[in-house]
């Protein structure tokens, strides 16, 4: 039976992906592209009043104990502490406020509740995950995912304030969920050849058009709370610009269905956004750029351009280059005029180099150094250099860059292997993709049903 590429909805998935756990336990993630704004459920059926007055006061509606009993099984504070420590160890430079830490702990509690429900459901259907299976997967993860022995991984986890049980608990949940979906969901998902043929024809018709992979954090707002929501959105943008994880913030704060996959909308065309302001903003963005918050109907949106591509076409950024870096440093004490003079003289000499074969000896005569890299993809280079290098011929150099007061450097193109012409997905690949998307949708409904039927007591 083929591996089902599914994953339940978890904040912790970010950490396990970094550790390599998911690939060893339940296969690759395959998230169905979704549009964020469409994810906020309509509340018209509840007929809410404009101003809500609580009959029984509560000191803090968000102040809930971070422990629970799920259908009789206890989730302890220690388990939450261990999971939080593991998440934070993956992002050591991110400092969370007290409010953010409380939000993270509540999210971790929800994740642990989901894992508990999955393990319980597998056991109730006579296919429990055994301790031996968990131990075997943990050992495989230690060796293949981390390059450690199980004992070394144990020591590492304790050193960051976590424990081996934190990963073993998630392994148990992953294995339980995988076998539940294999038996209760996958066999009932069917994709016809006609559906695949239709999708293939649509892909061929769109060949050459641009697709965008966008991340979105959507915060719902009403006229009454718009200013507060905008302030929160601006704070999130500031934290993202300071190095915060977009995936983590989307999982924690976004009120869109895409939050379950870290805000990733998948590969889409701009018209699929169904909002003129978002379309205009996205069309002007380059990969890695963050914009927002943008006010749209229903709230505010923060966009991240993850990548762009042309459908069915080879991406020039997949070209593999052979590069030579030529750099020169200045002695201390030079005046600005002397630095400028030496810089101009250096560039004139470099322009006279006769290709990479001539560069090493002539650079040494100038007091410069060279470094070679014979196999580097264009997309692995800084974004500012990518378009310049794509337009160079062999033997040509980039403009000088660096800190002028300290020295300058250039890159010389020594060779280039262009990517092969892109080949569209096969019929089998398209069918597998459509099956995976449907499995994921049913998996989400399955998990919602388990939550709805559960008896959960918060301590």
From TrEMBL:
<dbReference type="InterPro" id="IPR050280">
    <property type="entry name" value="OMP_Chaperone_SurA"/>
</dbReference>
<dbReference type="InterPro" id="IPR046357">
    <property type="entry name" value="PPIase_dom_sf"/>
</dbReference>
<feature type="signal peptide">
    <location>
        <begin position="1"/>
        <end position="38"/>
    </location>
</feature>
<keyword id="KW-0697">Rotamase</keyword>
<keyword id="KW-0413">Isomerase</keyword>
<protein>
    <recommendedName>
        <fullName>Parvulin-like PPIase</fullName>
    </recommendedName>
</protein>
<dbReference type="Pfam" id="PF00639">
    <property type="entry name" value="Rotamase"/>
</dbReference>
<dbReference type="InterPro" id="IPR000297">
    <property type="entry name" value="PPIase_PpiC"/>
</dbReference>
<dbReference type="GO" id="GO:0003755">
    <property type="term" value="F:peptidyl-prolyl cis-trans isomerase activity"/>
</dbReference>
<feature type="domain" description="PpiC">
    <location>
        <begin position="209"/>
        <end position="307"/>
    </location>
</feature>
<dbReference type="InterPro" id="IPR027304">
    <property type="entry name" value="Trigger_fact/SurA_dom_sf"/>
</dbReference>
<keyword id="KW-0732">Signal</keyword>
<dbReference type="Pfam" id="PF13624">
    <property type="entry name" value="SurA_N_3"/>
</dbReference>
